[in-house]
Specification:
Layout lengths: L9 E5 L4 H12 L3 E6 L4 H9 L4 E5 L8 H12 L4 E4 L14 H29 L2 E6 L12 H21 L4 E8 L8 H5 L1 H10 L12 H8 L10 E4 L7
Parallel strand pairs: 1-2, 1-4, 2-3, 4-5, 5-6, 6-7
The structure holds nicotinamide-adenine-dinucleotide.
């Protein structure tokens, strides 16, 4: 299983305090990586779990609603670990309102963190990765990169952009030793989907349509994240990999 081994690799994971980012960070650490955990709230619990595994985790509190903190995050990672091998752009938000009443603020906020920050974080990390001709970028998209969704127009637009950013960057950087791919999680039980899971009618309609018959969990993304972060995926470029219990196959 050496192709999946992440020993001596350094990863930045955004939105790592909870949910899918926390699960992905744990998975990368289990495979041997050291981590820079970023969030606008402290990532102390995630860091403690990773340190308990014998891996090194450092943390930084930063608001990714703007791109302003990206250079400082990359610099802090380089100061401690000397390199950035893996970037997981996971931090993201969702706003739910029928399209007819959707506000400009809800449009701008979601697009800012979910797609603009993703692009400029990729750019900042790739500048270091290119020096060593080695890097793995994993952007967290959504099934709403493929489907339109209901009451979440800016979210769908932003995740469609994530899929296209992923392909655009893969085209430019594959020849420079950088793999750029995305994971499109299905319906996962995190804060992001709390409102859906509390709406009994929607909750039942969603589970009834998932062939696996259950919501996904942060643990369900670990293996996919390790695959896309490791040598095992060296010839995988610009792919949006769904991890959805079969939703898209239906
Ligand atoms: P979550 O709300 O539990 O986690 C989001 C993370 O992003 C949190 O750690 C949060 O603190 C962080 N974050 C939010 N705003 C931030 C900001 N301004 N600056 C820095 N960090 C910020 O939700 P999640 O489900 O774990 O979502 C993670 C990613 O997965 C998101 O990009 C989301 O769109 C995507 N996703 C989730 C699902 C799902 O069903 N849960 C499905 C598809 C895609």
């Amino acid at each position: 299983m050496n192709a999946f081994n992440l020993s001596n690799e350094t990863a930045i994971v955004t939105g790592a305090s909870t949910g899918l980012g926390r699960g992905i960070a744990q998975g990368l650490a289990e495979a041997g990586a050291d981590l820079m955990l970023v969030d606008y709230v402290p990532c102390d619990e995630t860091a403690a779990e990773i340190n308990a595994m014998g891996r090194k985790a450092i943390t930084m509190v930063a608001d990714l609603m703007t791109t302003a903190s990206i250079p400082a995050i990359v610099e802090a990672t380089l100061r401690t670990f000397g390199k950035v091998d893996i970037l997981v752009n996971n931090a993201g938000i969702i706003r739910r309102t029928p399209a007819i009443d959707f506000s400009e603020k809800d449009w701008d906020d979601v697009m800012a963190i979910n797609s603009k920050t993703v692009f400029f974080f990729c750019q900042a990390a790739a500048r270091d990765m290119m020096k060593r001709h080695h890097g793995k970028i994993i952007n967290i998209a959504s099934l709403l990169a493929f489907q339109g969704g209901i009451n979440v127009p800016s979210y769908s637009a932003s995740k469609g952009a994530v899929a296209q950013i992923t392909k655009a960057l893969a085209n430019e950087w594959a020849s420079q030793g950088i793999n750029v791919n995305a994971i499109a999680p299905g319906y996962m039980a995190t804060n992001n989907t709390k409102a859906l899971r509390e709406d009994q009618k929607r909750e039942k309609a969603i589970v009834d349509r998932i062939p696996a018959g259950r919501w996904g969990t942060p643990e369900d993304l670990k293996g996919t994240a390790v695959f896309l972060a490791s040598r095992a995926s060296d010839y995988v470029q610009g792919h949006v990999l769904v991890v959805d219990g079969g939703w898209m196959a239906r």
